[in-house]
Amino acid sequence: MSVGILGAGAFGTALAVTLARKGLDVTIWARDADTVAAINEKREAPRLPGVTLPDRITASPDLAEVSTAQTLLLATPMQSLQSVLSQIDAPLSGQHLVACCKGIDLSTLTGPTGVIARAKPEAIPAILTGPSFAHDIARGLPTALTLACADPKAGAELQDQLSTATLRLYRSTDMTGAELGGALKNVIAIACGACIGEGMGDSARAALMTRGFAEMVRLATHLGARPETLAGLSGLGDLSLTCTSDLSRNYRFGLALGRQEPFDDTITVEGAKTALAVTRLTETLGLDLPICKMVAEVSARGVSIAEAITYLLNRSLKEE
């Protein structure tokens, strides 16, 4: 049984490692020739240093070849997903396309499963999301994620195929809740990082996490998600991890904003683009998500942390 992974970043490669250890053959698609060579010849992954890749993992620059696998894990950045899928000529009819990216597409204002449905309507979309760091998965540390697929039979097949001795997957049919939990927690993680970077303390961070979670539930349930999905691994679980750990890219980006320090622009920060997309989406829906709005203002429009804090603290008092 084989699996194809589109994207040679840290998370996609970590999934390849744990699946190969289970005995699956895994082919990774990578654009960069040096990355392909490093994987095939040196058994190394540039984005996952210190990890020796099992022999069952191979890499290829041929997107069409890798895309023939029955199960494809889409581990590209969220804002690149639509472009990558458009480069695949085949309809991928009946194949399982599992999104492993988190965010909301700026052009369509949909999550990854929505992008899949638009680009490859004959495929079966799913999403794999939850509290996880790539190095933890690659090192074989215990990790639990949500595997959401609207098709119960396909979801059960994917759960069985992709679960390993150290990667435990919980199945759901609520793709909307799972993908919005994963997308919005990145936005709140930026806010929490900025809070700590600015020196506002842990009490303020706890308040941001709690009120940020309320915003996650507000938007997701408005779009048809189940509240219990947001209370699970793909929502509250992922939020807890990314708002408190320096290993989170979104949290580190927020820290840099709060400290007024430069941030490495080669690092993908999905939450910044997602904040912009959420702001546009909520404006059309008439929903109020003030923390998400302020993250968009600070990260993309130059509003200062002090101005954002003033805005949030001076909002009208209300019931919880």
Automatic annotation (TrEMBL):
Pathway: Membrane lipid metabolism; glycerophospholipid metabolism
Location of the Glycerol-3-phosphate dehydrogenase NAD-dependent N-terminal domain: 3-153
EC code: 1.1.1.94
InterPro entries referenced in this protein's UniProt entry, alphabetically: 6-PGluconate_DH-like_C_sf, 6PGD_dom2, G3P_DH_NAD-dep, G3P_DH_NAD-dep_C, G3P_DH_NAD-dep_N, NAD(P)-bd_dom_sf
Signal sequence interval, chain numbering: none
Keywords of this entry: Cytoplasm, Lipid biosynthesis, Lipid metabolism, NAD, NADP, Nucleotide-binding, Oxidoreductase, Phospholipid biosynthesis, Phospholipid metabolism
Glycerol-3-phosphate dehydrogenase NAD-dependent C-terminal domain mapped to chain residues: 174-309
SUPFAM superfamilies: 6-phosphogluconate dehydrogenase C-terminal domain-like (SSF48179), NAD(P)-binding Rossmann-fold domains (SSF51735)
Subcellular location: Cytoplasm
Active site: K185 (proton acceptor)
Binding site for NADPH: F11, R31, K102, A134, R249, E270
Binding locations of sn-glycerol 3-phosphate: K102, G130, S132, K185, D238, S248, R249, N250
NCBIfam families per the UniProt record, alphabetical: PRK00094.1-2 (NF000940), PRK00094.1-4 (NF000942)
Family: Belongs to the NAD-dependent glycerol-3-phosphate dehydrogenase family.
HAMAP family named among the record's database cross-references: NAD_Glyc3P_dehydrog (MF_00394)
Name by which UniProt lists this protein: Glycerol-3-phosphate dehydrogenase [NAD(P)+]
Origin species: Arenibacterium halophilum
